[in-house]
């Protein structure tokens, strides 16, 4: 039952009447409506040219490299959770020693990811923050559409302010995060923990 509730909370909002377009390969996008200037600009923004190949089918559609909490007041300017080698054991250790965020600071969430063989459209990042089982925050941010390339993309989301006060400092916050597209395909789903404190 708890799993179903969490999935409901991590369901992206939808726009009534919107239907995602048909998925195409990189080569199909490259040949699509070559005379359409606005489409040509969109394809160029995804790195798709007339000579586009099929991408690398051996690579995953999306590889999530890291998630960062960035704040100008944090030591070194940011606190990073690296997901490359984040095993179940490391996630369990994170629950015992959560990331510390200073109360009242401004911060933003950033993710680093790579796209494999296909154009991924309508990507969104969602997370639900719970303290003692009660939802205290929810974030839904558009990531956008991205084409395959060897270099990682980095997407930074809107700045938020960490809560402050004794209640905010009373316990850990469990965050369930997800990267999903406009067809409902989930590319990453993980849980991490942070706590609010008087200082970093």
Q: What is the CATH top level name of the largest domain?
A: Mainly Beta
Number of domains: 2
Number of helices: 4
CATH homolog superfamily of the largest domain: Coagulation Factor XIII, subunit A, domain 1
Write the CATH architecture name of the largest domain.
Distorted Sandwich
- Helix-residue proportion: 10-25%
List the helices and strands and how they pair.
Elements: H1 2-9, H2 26-31, H3 37-45, E1 62-70, E2 78-82, H4 88-96, E3 99-102, E4 106-115, E5 120-131, E6 134-146, E7 153-156, E8 160-161, E9 172-180, E10 186-197
Parallel strand pairs: 3-10
Antiparallel strand pairs: 1-2, 1-4, 4-7, 4-8, 5-6, 5-9, 9-10
Organism: Acaromyces ingoldii
Keywords: Cytoplasm
Protein name: Rho GDP-dissociation inhibitor
Any overview of this molecule?
- It contains four helices and ten strands; from the N terminus they run H-H-H-E-E-H-E-E-E-E-E-E-E-E.
- The protein is α+β, with helices and mostly antiparallel strands.
- The protein folds into two domains: 23-54, no CATH class; 58-197, Distorted Sandwich (Coagulation Factor XIII, Chain A, domain 1), CATH 2.70.50.30.
- The strands form two sheets. Strands 1, 2, 4, 7 and 8 form a five-stranded antiparallel beta sheet that branches. The protein has a five-stranded mixed beta sheet with strand order 3-10-9-5-6, covered by helices on one side.
- The protein is elongated.
- The protein starts with a helix and ends with a strand.
- Residues 1-5 have low confidence and may be disordered.
């Amino acid at each position: 039952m708890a799993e179903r509730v969490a999935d409901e909370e991590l369901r992206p909002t939808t726009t009534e009447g919107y239907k995602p377009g048909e998925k195409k390969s990189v080569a199909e996008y490259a040949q699509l409506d070559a005379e359409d200037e606005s489409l040509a600009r969109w394809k160029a923004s995804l790195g798709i040219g007339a000579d586009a190949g099929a991408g690398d089918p051996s690579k995953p559609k999306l590889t999530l490299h890291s998630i960062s909490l960035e704040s100008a007041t944090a030591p070194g300017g940011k606190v990073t959770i690296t997901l490359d080698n984040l095993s179940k054991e490391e996630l369990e250790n994170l629950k015992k020693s959560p990331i510390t965020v200073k109360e009242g600071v401004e911060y933003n969430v950033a993710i680093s990811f790579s796209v494999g063989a296909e154009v991924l459209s309508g990507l969104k990042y969602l997370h639900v923050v719970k303290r003692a089982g009660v939802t205290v925050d929810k974030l839904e941010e558009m990531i956008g559409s991205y084409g395959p390339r060897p270099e990682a993309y980095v997407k930074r989301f809107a700045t938020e302010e960490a809560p402050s006060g004794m209640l905010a400092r009373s316990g850990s916050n469990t965050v369930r995060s997800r990267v999903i597209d406009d067809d409902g395909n989930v590319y990453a789903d993980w849980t991490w923990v942070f706590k609010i404190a008087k200082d970093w």
